[in-house]
């Protein structure tokens, strides 16, 4: 094949959910999802859900005329680390809701607390007394 015809123009990535660890199964019920037009040799697949424990991936190279054969599929695990955020103990500038965390530069949930010293001078509560952890 002449050099001009064999130059890789882009890659096609296909992936699907599987319930099995280890080598990909020949017959899977899940359809392949397709990502076309990948120009580089690295790609970040976003939007995966944590319930997709195992995923099959395969890729093929394409030039301007034809697509090559798919690579041997590989199976990867999308591990999830489960944790909870506690609104009562988080940093004072974080607004924590059930499924989101938002930075609030005004320190929304803790207002400037004034305390009185023995000599009557006002002072701002020290960071040691704030709920920041």
Automatic annotation (TrEMBL):
Entry superkingdom: Eukaryota
GO cellular component: microtubule
Domain called Fibronectin type-III: residue spans: 1-81
Record-linked Pfam families: fn3 (PF00041)
InterPro entries documented for this protein: E3_ligase_FN3/SPRY, FN3_dom, FN3_sf, Ig-like_fold
Biological process, per Gene Ontology: regulation of cell division; regulation of mitotic spindle organization
Region annotated Disordered, chain positions: 110-133
Ranges of Basic and acidic residues composition bias in the record: 111-122
A GO term, aspect molecular function: microtubule binding
Protein name: FSD1 protein
Protein source organism: Eudromia elegans
Gene that encodes the chain: Fsd1
